[in-house]
């Protein structure tokens, strides 16, 4: 994490009230994953990773997290725009409601999804009666659970970017006759693109690690709803070494993807 | 032992070092009047052990009984990683074996047995009557994952019946499996009799003969490194006594 201030600023004497907690914070975040590396069964690692169940879970995790991020972009960016650019009454309340999934324990989120979208849920029973669609225990259900938990991250990031962007460009476009939709598409969106990408990355990472809402709402079935975090949890019941291997695989894939994205697009945002 | 330290334990020790060597010694046992007994028990024992804990506290004034209920496999992991427990009650001999193999307990005693039942929602929408009805692909079935004792028992029972069931989900513990039935998301599940009784009014239990092939023994043991070895033994004695048996059978367990 190198900030934009690289190579600038006063170099002499780092103030210890900042340095000591910073190092403690770093150790707190870095040591647990390092512990995984120390305890990893390196010798059996390749054959454990090549197991079809592992690859299946990894593939499912990547696919669902990516679809969930796409859903969040489609719904979350307009929502962020609504919060940042309109004078809708009750916007503060809306913003508070949007952050609820952030503070809600994910398991509770999963139960809430069941109560609404389940076969006997408020909306779900109607879906089931009319179309025979039932989301729990399906891959679509996994995407639902991940999107529910991850969307607030995207909305908050994009809203922040929208508030920081200079509105005079949008006003100028409007005075030149552009409609609000055109302004959004041609001026606003390109301006906040780095913020949207940063939000999408955060959202994807959160979706990839999602456990509680997924296992509660979508259940656990290999190849259909068993994502990596679920596979890790169940492996822990009988074979901690396998759980460590799975965790490392998930960690490696997410770090590679995030690092690649960072270099490519997010840059110093 | 050092090799088996969990990342969390490593972190904890590093942090305690960082805190300028502030003393992290375990408090000496038996200091003053208040004593504490820590019992690690399988999730299916939640209701009955909570009651036994209250009875124990009422006859041992100044003693506080603390429970850690969870999946037996997870509890066994925590104990072998050094969790300060006095008593371990597991839902399967296999999970107890993890602890005895590590030399942390000896001579566990089987105190109850638990059998499976088919749990269906109160209104039984799929009209389930026997184990055979679960093979219908239109019937949504939840089972426990094979890694946890109730899942292993379900597989045994289905094998004994020669049936192949395709569940929609393999849940992480028996309570989660039951919740799916309570909410009506699945038409049936294989769970313990005791869990069906605990969820009375929300689910219905159906006995099936093959359950006799998949009886789960519940072993209990006082742990070798118990901070309170005296109290640990007394608690085990209470569970094995007639008084304990009464509470457990009321919850749906069967005598060994």
Tell me briefly what this model is:
The complex is a heterodimer of chains A (269) and B (256). With 269 residues, chain A is mainly alpha-helical.
Distance between the termini of chain B: 35 Å
| Biggest interface pair, counts | A-B, 35 and 30 residues
CATH topology of the largest domain in chain B: D-Maltodextrin-Binding Protein, domain 2
Q: State the CATH superfamily name of the largest domain in chain B.
A: Periplasmic binding protein-like II
The helix-and-strand class of chain A reads mainly alpha
CATH superfamily of chain A: MetI-like
CA-CA gap between termini of chain A? 11 Å
CATH topology-level fold name of chain A:
MetI-like fold
CATH class of chain A: Mainly Alpha
Broad CATH class of the largest domain in chain B = Alpha Beta
Q: What does the model show?
A:
- The complex is a heterodimer of chains A (269) and B (256).
- Chain A has 269 residues and is mostly helical.
- Chain A has one domain: MetI-like fold (Orthogonal Bundle), CATH 1.10.3720.10.
- Chain A contains 13 helices and no strands.
- In chain A, helix 3 packs antiparallel against helix 10, helix 9 packs antiparallel against helix 10 and helix 12 (228-238) packs antiparallel against helix 13.
- The longest helix of chain A is centred in the N-terminal third of the chain and has 34 residues, at 52-85.
- Chain A starts with 15 loop residues before the first helix and ends with a helix.
- By secondary structure, chain B is α/β, with parallel strands linked by helices.
- Chain B folds into two domains: 34-113 and 217-250, D-Maltodextrin-Binding Protein, domain 2, CATH 3.40.190.10; 116-213, Periplasmic binding protein-like II (D-Maltodextrin-Binding Protein, domain 2).
- Helix content of chain B is 36%, strand content 21%.
- Chain B contains nine helices and ten strands.
- Chain B has helices at residues 7-18, 46-59, 72-80, 93-101, 149-161, 174-182, 193-198, 229-240, 242-250; strands at residues 35-42, 63-70, 87-89, 109-114, 116-121, 141-144, 169-171, 188-192, 203-206, 216-222.
- A five-stranded mixed beta sheet of chain B has the order 2-1-3-10-4. Chain B has a five-stranded mixed beta sheet with strand order 7-6-8-5-9, sandwiched between helices.
- In chain B, strand 6, helix 5 and strand 7 form a beta-alpha-beta unit.
- Chain B is elongated, with a radius of gyration of 20 Å.
- At the A-B interface, helix 1, helix 6 and helix 12 of A face helix 1, helix 3, strand 7 and helix 6 of B.
